[in-house]
Amino acid sequence: MNNGDIAQQGNVIVKKIRNGLLKFKLTDEQANTTALNTIRTPRGGEYEVILDDGSHIWLNSASTLQFPAHFSSPDRKVALTGEAYFEVQSSLLPSGLKKSFIVSVDNMEVQAVGTAFNILAYKEDNRSQTTVVEGLVKVNRNNKTNMLSPGKKLIAKDTTTTIEDADIKQEIAWKNGDFVFRNTSLIMVMNELSRWYDVDVAYDKGVPSLHFSGEVQRTSDIKAVLQMLEYTGGVTFTISKHNITVHPGKK
To answer: pLDDT digit string (tens) for 222-245?
Structure first.
């Protein structure tokens, strides 16, 4: 598909700037467009979106973002499943107050004004995580509010909520084209590989509970990544078409 205007929703033009980057631009500043857009990235794919307010969003593989074509309400609200990195542009109400940007995800709301943050919320990981890179973020969950400053992350799992120091390089490695594992569980590693390489993963009986640390580019062949994991001696892998089976390592 060529660059340029590719669609129009009412007073909103959808413009393709380059491969993987879409921009939504209002043609009439007085328009009140409330149409919702939904963008889904397949396994192994990524998307970038520039919203009408100038906010820039990167969507990781197997993720979905829903957002209005134009933010006409006092709050800018979007909904996410999967993982995305947000660079939110500051926006003012007619009163001069700053307009909030709210992400609804996994039974919680992440609220910002003008900031950069990453949200990880894949269903198969059984938890969600919000990491602040710049600015301040407010997270509302279970009728409780937590404020996050740069370098902090909030982990929500079941009914618990914890705040920890974040390894920013690891949290946004996917956006920079890398896998970065820091004492990451085998299941979390394989979930990430499954989404990016579009494979299904099965586990043999007796696979140990392992954790891995290391870095590798996402452009690497999956066989090279699995070989890196096999160096620990704890597991081995077999690949059959789009299926990977994890086996206990040889004793």
So the answer is: 999 999 899 887 899 999 989 999
